[in-house]
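User: My advisor, Dr. K., asked me to get a structural model of this assembly before our group meeting. I'm new to this, so sorry if the format is off. These are the inputs:
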Amino acid sequence: MFQRTIVTAMAMTLCASTAIAQDLPQASSEYFTAAQANLEAAIAREPNTNQATNIILFVADGMGVGTNYGIRLFQGQQMGLLGEEHNLVYDLYPNTAIIKTYNINAQTPDSAPTAGAMNTGVKQVFNTINMADTVVHDDCSTESPLRLFSEMLSDAGKSVGVVSTARITHATGAAVYAKTANRNWEDEAPEGCTDIATQLIEQMEAGVIDIALGGGISAFAPEGTELAVGSGGRPDDANLIERAQAAGARFVYDADTLAAADAGAPILGLFSGSHMSYEYDRPETEPSLADLTAAAIEQLEGNGDGEGFYLVVEAGRVDHASHGGNAYRAFTDGVAFAEAVALADEMTDDENTLIIVTADHEHVISFNGYCGRGTPITGLCMGVASGQVEHSGEPALADDGMPYTVVSYTNGAGSVLVEQEDGTYAGSRPEVTQEAAMDPDYLQQALIPMGSETHSGVDVALWAKGPWAHLFGGTMDQEMIFHVMNHAAFGAAE
Amino acid sequence: MNRRAFFATATGAAICAPFVASPAHAYEEQVRLRELYNNDMSFTDFALEQEGKRVAIEGFMAPPLKAESQFYVLTNRPMAVCPFCSSEAEWPNDILAVYAKRVVDVIPFNVMIVTRGVLELGTYTDPELGFVSRVRVVDATQERV
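Assistant: The format is fine. Below is the predicted structure of the whole assembly, which you can bring to the meeting.
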């Protein structure tokens, strides 16, 4: 099917501009008519200047433009399409921007200050969260906290939720509620500073955070404490789960207890010891990202005040899979992310809900050519065939006479250079079969040997719909996300 | 068991395989490490059937926790140590503890190996290291695939 979503929705509105096109020999092409339908939709589009009752910020950690491309083809091919023609649900959102992701002191960003920029409106320092630009990483005495969008909205009567498949104390989720000179102070911090898990409970007690769902239960109970999932790992004797419950929060820990939770905040949901499972490895007892997102929306809408909510949803493990050099899990977690976006979209109204979909940074993922249409995105690059649309079925060969995968990473654990007994690195590109390349555990070939594949400073994309989404456009700095959300929530009412 | 606890309890003494070696069989099933675990971390039928038998498991040798050891951890995918993913304290769930016949020659973490030995199931806490494992291969040898 060709551009399936757009074409089916817009097929009846083609009349106007086809008058220009009907004399062209290409006018009957599916590409042409689909583009005409898109044109009509763009012409008919009107900006939504309503005040946003709800704002949902979706962040797929490490899903830059390249990674998103891989997820798009992966999902399309799962659906039986060639893949390239497919669109992820948010690919079709009417408003987009290119987002610059650098940190104050880093060309290549990390997830803490990037998420912080989204939540405060300013760039931040590498490895810190929601601190002024004077902060020195890892120096507690230099902490100078900023005010958060969640705090502003809470003061205005809205509910706030945070959902992540990573530890809920990990960078992206933490940036919704925490302020720290070191993103790694998840379960302990130097004297005078407060660890991130404790900050979450403090923000729940303060009424800022109403829903927190994710992994990382070990940071919430003393080391050795047996818990519903995993065990505690805190070096102090604080049981933060009990503290949250004493403050009125309900605690859930698996798919069943999440589903059984009555509507109304607050809820603390911790579903694994550390990060939650990759989607490919996820047991049924663990909720999916779509399950978490739906539950959060239901709970936030169900608190009865009608004031609306701010929800941040992170697909935290797209990033981790790429760090591990494993494109298969990056793409499967990306598909789970897209499914969560689609569900949230269905559950909310474009008239009053601003949905933003973006990433915090890209990875050093790259896509080799020249591959024919329908080449499996996690497999070998198959040649372009003359006289047919689909690829030739024969792997394209490099100058060394061997095939290569579509995806590769510039650095990481998949490096073809392997450490030798004398400590030097040497190696050559191994021959890869299609079966090996398509295996879910395959690590794509990389060049520079590194224990963990790295982020990249390359731009990411942003897609948006709903109130004031049209303010996104062109190339923007990441902190603009805060400013548009802030205007949608508050500025529109002035 | 995690790395932090491991370091806290490791004595530095040479590690001895705590199991009696079993005689080698002529035929060993050679499978990937992932064939031992279901998604919910229960053991697969294959693992249950092979308990006490000699097996050959493909995986990757995690960077050893100490030098001159007979002990190492086999991982399903190369153990990428990511500063933004996991702390030093964390192992993935789907690992295999290996007690080798001899002191192990370290193989780089991203080179696939096959470990041959006797499959042992059930939680076991190493009395010297404190390392808690759910599945082990003992009396093991290893080589590059």
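One thing worth pointing out at the meeting: The CA atoms of residues 253 and 271 of chain A lie 5 Å apart.

User: Perfect, thanks a lot.
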